[in-house]
Amino acid sequence: MLIKRGKRGQVTLFVIIAIIIIVGVLSYFLLRGTISSKQTLPSNVEAIEKTFLDCVQERTLTGISILESRGGYIYDQKFEPGSVYMPFSSHLDFVGNQIPYWFYISKNNIPKENVPNKEKMNTELSKYIEERALLCDLSDYTSQGFTISKEKPNVVVEILEDKVNVDFEMNLNIYDEVSSYNIQDHDFSINSKLGSLYDSALKIYEKEQKELFLETYGIDFLRLYAPVDGVELTCAPKTWNAHNVFEDLRNALEVNTLALKTKGKSNDYYLIDTEISQDVKFVYSGNWPSKFEVTPNEGSLLISKPVGNQQGLGILGFCYVPYHFVYNLAYPTLIQIYDENEFFQFPVAVVIQGNQPRKSLEGSSESSESLGICEYKNSLTEISVLDSDLKPLESEISFECFGISCDIGKTSTNGSLKTFIPQCHNGILSASSKNYKEDQMIYSSVENGSAIIILNRNYEKNISLILSEKSYSGNAIISFTDSDNKVQTLVYPEMKKVDLSEGVYNVSVYSYKNSSLKLAKTSKEQCVDVSESGVLGILGLTKKECFNVDIPEQIISNAVSGGGMGEVYFSSSDLSSDKNLEIRADELTTPKSVEELQSNYILLESKSIEVIFK
C-alpha cells in the first residue's frame, strides 16, 4: 500500500511539471514578439520600426502644417457660397488654399463664427495620423522576405505650447522565416509651435471681436483715400467716378493693411497693442471678393452740387460745395502669426456699415439661420422672359423677399424656367440679360403660379453737345433719369456714351466755362443765443453772443454758362439705328458777378433742350 501511494504522488508531480512546461512554452511563443518590442529588437526589425515611425512623424508634420495654414482645420468644413448681396463665401481662397473664415457674413447677411478649439484640432490631427499611418510604404522590407501587416491604429494627440505629443497604439506585425514580432506602442513627440501660435491667433481674434480695430483702421483709410465728408469753396459741382474711388481704396487698403503690426514704437500709428511675442502680418488683396457701396450716387458718379448760387442766397457772397457720402464696405483680412519657420493663419471679414464699424459679435449666430429664406423653395413657378418683340431671352432670375435676394436660376433658350421659389407675399421677381435693361415685377409666390417679364434692349449711343448752334467741347454734366428714377450721369467731354432703352427720360444739361469771377474776402457778424451762467441758466434765460465769420477770398474758375432740361421719349426704332444722339441747348453769358451766376441757374430751370438722332 505504501508503494502504491508513492507511485500516485510521483504521477501527480509529473503532471504538474508537464503543465508548467506547456504553459511556459505557450507563453514564450505568444509573448516573445511583444517582449522583444519592449526590449532590444534585432537590427533588421528595428530598421522596419524606424522606417515606419519616420513615415508617421513625417505625416504628422504634414498634418500640423495643414492645421496651421487652414486656420486650425484639416478636413473641409461645410462650404457656403456668397451672393450678390454679400460676396463672401465661408472660405477664403488664398493661392489655391481654401481657408475657413473665423468670422464672416453669410449670403443672407447673418454674422457667423467658425473658430476651432484645441480639442477639435486634436481630434482632426489624430484622425489624419490614423489614416495616413496605414499608407506608410514598407515594401522595401517585404521584398527582403519579411511579411508585415498593420492593424487599425488608435491615436490620441495633445497639442501643447511648444510640442505635439502623439500617443500612437497600433499592432505592427512582422514575420520572417524563423521569428515573429508584434510592436504595439509607437509614441513620439514633435517639436512645434502650433499650440502657442494658435493661442496668439485666438488673442488677436478676441481683440478684433471686442475692439473692432480692423474696422477702425478701415474707416481711417476710407476717409483718407475717398470722399466722405467735406466742404470746398467752388461754384461748380464736384464729381467723382465711383469706380476710380473704389480702385484707389482697394490699393490703399492693400498697402496700409500690410503696414499694420504688433511690434514697434508706442507712438506708431500702425501699431496694434497686444501681448503677443510672435510677429503678426495682416494681408488684404484687391483680388479677393469684396463689397464696396456708396450713396448717394448717380450711376457710377458721385456728384455734389454747389450752395450759394441759388435764388435768394446772394447775401452769402460766395459759393461752396458740401458733400457727404455713406459707404458700406466688406472685405477679407488674412491674419498670419509667425514664429521662426512656422506660421498660423486665419481670415476674418472686415465690415463697415454706414461709415461706422459693424457691431461687436455677441456669440455665434448659427441659430439665426432660420431666416435663410432662400433655402426653403416650395412654390412651383414657371417664369418666362421675352424681349419687346416677344422673343424668348436667356436670363438670370432672382427673387427678393424681406430684403433677402435669392438666386433662382437661368432661363433656357426658349426663355422659360420652371422651378421652385421661396413662398413670399409681394416679393420682387427680377430678370437680367446681357444687352438688356434689368426689369422686375411684384410677385406673390404663396401658391404655385407663373410670371412673364418683358425686357427692353439697351443701346449704347454716342453723345454730342450743341450749344447755341455750335459744337461744344467744353466741360458739362449731362444726366439721364428713367421712369424708375435710375440715373446715368456723364461728365462731358470725357464721357460721350450712354446706355438707353425704350422709354421716357428726364434729360438735364449743365455746361461750364472758365471764369475769372473773383469774390473778395469778407467778414460778417454772426450772433447766437447761449444760456446764461449760474442760476439764470438753470431758469432757461439766454443771452446773445456775437462773433465774426471770416470768408476768404474766392476765385470761381468754373461757372455755369449754358444748358437746360426736358422730358424725352426714346423709341426702340430710333435707338436701334446707327445714328448718334445730339443734344441741343442754349448758351448763356459767362457770369461776372455772383448775381449773374445765380441768374444763370434760375434761367436754366426754364430752358428747354432738343434731342435728335443724327
Give the strand tally. Answer: 36
N-C termini distance: 145 Å
Q: What is the number of independent domains?
A: 4
Structural classification? alpha+beta
Name the assembly state: single chain
Number of helices: 10
What is the average of the pLDDT values?
82
The low-confidence parts are 1-9, 25-39, 311-317, 363-371
Helix content: 10-25%
Largest sheet: 9 strands, mixed
Question: What Rg, in angstroms, do the CA atoms define?
Answer: 39 Å
- What is the 3D form? elongated
Strand-residue proportion: 35-45%
Report on this structure.
The chain is of the alpha+beta class and 614 residues long. The chain folds into 4 domains: 121 residues, no CATH class; 164 residues, no CATH class; 83 residues, Immunoglobulin-like; 155 residues. It has 10 helices and 36 strands. The strands form 10 sheets. Strands 26, 27, 28, 29, 30, 31, 34, 35 and 36 form a 9-stranded mixed sheet that branches. Strands 5, 6, 7, 8 and 9 form a 5-stranded antiparallel sheet that branches. Helix 2 crosses helix 3 and helix 6 packs across helix 7. The longest helix is centred in the first third of the chain and has 37 residues. The termini are far apart. The N terminus is likely disordered.
